[in-house]
Automatic annotation (TrEMBL):
Keyword Lyase in annotation: yes
Presence of keyword Lyase: yes
InterPro entries listed in its UniProt record: Cys/Met-Metab_PyrdxlP-dep_enz, Cys_met_metab_PP, L-Met_gamma_lys, PyrdxlP-dep_Trfase, PyrdxlP-dep_Trfase_major, PyrdxlP-dep_Trfase_small
Protein name: L-methionine gamma-lyase
Assigned EC number: 4.4.1.11
Cofactors: pyridoxal 5'-phosphate
Gene that produces this protein: megL
Species of provenance: Planococcus notacanthi
Xref: PROSITE patterns: CYS_MET_METAB_PP
A Pfam family annotated for this UniProt entry: Cys_Met_Meta_PP
Family recorded in the similarity comment: Belongs to the trans-sulfuration enzymes family. L-methionine gamma-lyase subfamily.
Transmembrane domains' residue ranges: none
Reactions this protein catalyses: L-methionine + H2O = methanethiol + 2-oxobutanoate + NH4(+)
Key words, A-Z: Lyase, Pyridoxal phosphate
Length: 402
């Protein structure tokens, strides 16, 4: 191969794997092993001392997992990556690595519930504080910086309201203050948004979602812009906290990742059609989709995302009762949390993903009792729309009775 950066569509299939090093196996083999034997005592000593390349023990690296890590580094535009046993293992390793007692983490207005839970634990136990603020302008970010702020941690689009963080504004403020930036890029996938290329220091993913795309793996990946630093994280926090990815999950992820670009294009095209259908529904009060011209941060979306993604949130007339009736009237579309699978999934944030958030805070975040989040899958949109249409028809007469 010429010595140039591969296009993403090629990298998801080839990067980091050379079949001649693996008995010419076309597909990356599954190295289902916990440990590696050394040829002699000296080799063991050299590997532990870091004087010779080679495997030691699978918590420190595994050949199947390493292919996935190289591939992820390439497609996110980083110099190193680490695979973890879940998205939350990646989040916790990153926050443990970046903070110490007394530090402050500045977060986007919405963050994944368990990330918030982790930050609460860190505050209670180690005095590491955090704030959640809207980050649509540089001024909003600047005002929230404190002398002890060491890290800006953002998700964009924010779950489930699809509010956007202005990444350019975040990078500008972070650079000025010498603060590290971490972006949870799960919702967009590397195909739609690459925060490292915009100046972020770390990007992380719940690989459970679009990266795998087939609903059969829980995993996480952290990508960084500096190879030496990532090696340092591997040999410290990742090794000692131990939330590593299993070789089998890496093998499944390598399989899923090969079609990332094809799947994402279809997720987006299907979401577009479902969006148009939802817009015509009398019972739909509000729609949240980044590439909808009515989205309040549509301009920011266009600036930092290639396409609008596969998730749509919408509010229906009525309240919790109508939202639940709607869910119960669906048959093809599955009631489930998670996202990014071939199957279209729908969930009710107020009673599911955000049930632990007190109602008052939920409402402040824009999560009403009638909000639903749809992860548009890869089925034919006629079938999806027929299922949604039937559910709207079931809810309609019941609404009129009130
Ligand atoms: C699912 C998710 C996580 C957590 O990932 P797990 O793989 O479930 O541990 C983190 N961030 C976002 C945005 C997610 O959707």
């Amino acid at each position: 191969m010429r010595n140039k950066e591969m296009n993403m569509e090629t990298a998801v299939i080839h990067k980091g794997y050379n079949s001649s090093e693996h008995h010419d196996s076309l597909v990356t083999p599954l190295y289902q092993t916990s440990t590696y034997s050394f040829a002699n005592a000296q080799e063991g000593e050299d590997r532990f001392a870091g004087n010779s390349e080679g495997n030691i023990y699978s918590r420190l690296g595994n050949p199947t997992v390493r292919v996935l890590e190289e591939r992820m580094a390439e497609i996110e535009g980083g110099q190193g990556a680490l695979a973890f046993g879940s998205g939350m293992a990646a989040v916790s390793a990153t926050l443990i690595y970046l903070t110490k007692a007394g530090d402050h983490v500045l977060c986007s207005r919405g963050i994944y519930g368990c990330t918030f839970g982790l930050l609460e634990i860190m505050e209670e136990k180690y005095g590491i504080t955090h704030d959640l603020v809207s980050m649509t302008t540089e001024q909003e970010v600047e005002q929230a910086i404190r002398p002890e702020t060491v890290c800006i941690y953002v998700e964009t689009p924010i779950n489930p309201t699809m509010e956007l963080v202005n990444l350019q504004a975040v990078m500008a403020v972070a650079k000025k203050h010498g603060i590290r930036v971490v972006v949870d890029n799960t919702f967009s996938s590397p195909y739609l948004q690459n925060p490292l290329r915009m100046g972020a220091d770390f990007v992380l993913h719940s690989a459970t979602k679009y990266l795998n795309g087939h609903g059969d793996v829980v995993g996480g990946v952290l990508v960084g812009r500096d190879a030496d630093e990532m090696q340092h994280v591997r040999m410290t926090v990742q090794k000692d906290v131990g939330g590593i990815m299993s070789p089998f999950d890496a093998w499944l992820l390598l399989r899923g990742l090969k079609t990332l670009h094809v799947r994402m294009d279809r997720h987006v095209a299907n979401a577009q059609k479902v969006l148009e259908f939802l817009k015509r529904q009398e019972l739909v009060k509000k729609i949240y989709y980044p590439f909808d011209v009515q989205h309040p941060q549509y301009e920011i979306a266009k600036q930092q995302m290639r396409q609008g993604g596969g998730l749509i949130s919408f509010e229906i007339e009525g309240g919790k009762k109508q939202a639940q009736q709607f869910l119960d009237s669906l048959s093809l579309i599955k009631i489930a949390v998670s996202l990014g699978d071939a199957e279209t999934l729908i969930q009710h944030p107020a009673t599911m993903t955000h049930a632990a958030v007190p109602q008052e805070n939920r409402e402040a975040m824009g999560i009403s009792d009638s909000l639903l989040r749809l992860s548009v899958g890869l089925e034919h949109t006629d079938d999806l729309i027929a299922d949604l249409n039937y559910a709207f028809e079931q809810v309609k007469p019941k609404l009129q009775e009130i």
